[in-house]
Amino acid sequence: MVEATIQQKTESIIAIRTRRKAIRYMVYVGLVFLVLWSIQSTIIEDTDWDRIGGLKSISQGVKRFVPPDFSLFGQLVKPTIETFMIAALGTMLAIVLAIPVSWFAAHNISPFLPVTYPIGRAIMTLSRSVHEIVWGLIFVSAVGLGAFPGIIAVGMRSIGFISKLTAEAIEDIDPGPVEAIKAVGGNWFQVVLYGIVPQILPVFIGNAIFQWDINIRRATIMGLVGAGGLGLTFHRQLVMYNYQGVTTVIIAILCLIGFGEVCSYYARKAII
After folding, report:
1. Which end of the chain is less congested by CB atoms within 10 angstroms, N or C?
2. Distance, CA of 93 to CA of 164 (rounded, Å)
């Protein structure tokens, strides 16, 4: 009787494992089919293969971009500084605006939960859903050409990232210090200042520095929609078919991004 029960359980376990294995293999086959279908529909069918030349035509196309137009370097100083300032000021704008958004979007401290929590989450989602180029087009049409719409666009795009991570950090704080301050009669401002801010400050600063690092890359393309910086110079060289000048602008962008990487590394190391 006991042996029969054990045999039955063993067969049941083997059947379950066999079924799970079959399901897993079916999922793998489904994923492979999905990848192949994606390649077929988005690459093979949508590509104009007649316009793609051989290695000779590709090498001829690449040769148009070398050597760089070194005479252009002098004209890149101002756009490079402008790009850097767009990233810095856009990040500062995002940091300021992200503070109330984080407060609204943190479930444990949101001032009027049924109203302010959805508002905070909606702002975060809107900021992250719209691409910086779209924000740039909106603000260029609103305030005109130049660096100012670029600063606002970068700031609007960055609010979602900073506020989302900050709100989640607030929701994950240790409630002990907050309860202790409340127990000794601390008001709301003292609870936030001494119970919450010290716990989330390293996260907030780290996110702000990381966002500034990302914004340097974003700022380099804002000029494509008329929002100033190196992107505008890049676009001008491209429409003039000065491909060697395009290479020079790309080199300037790489140098600026490298500078941002070094600065963000040492800033994190010094502050956090």
Report:
1. N
2. 16
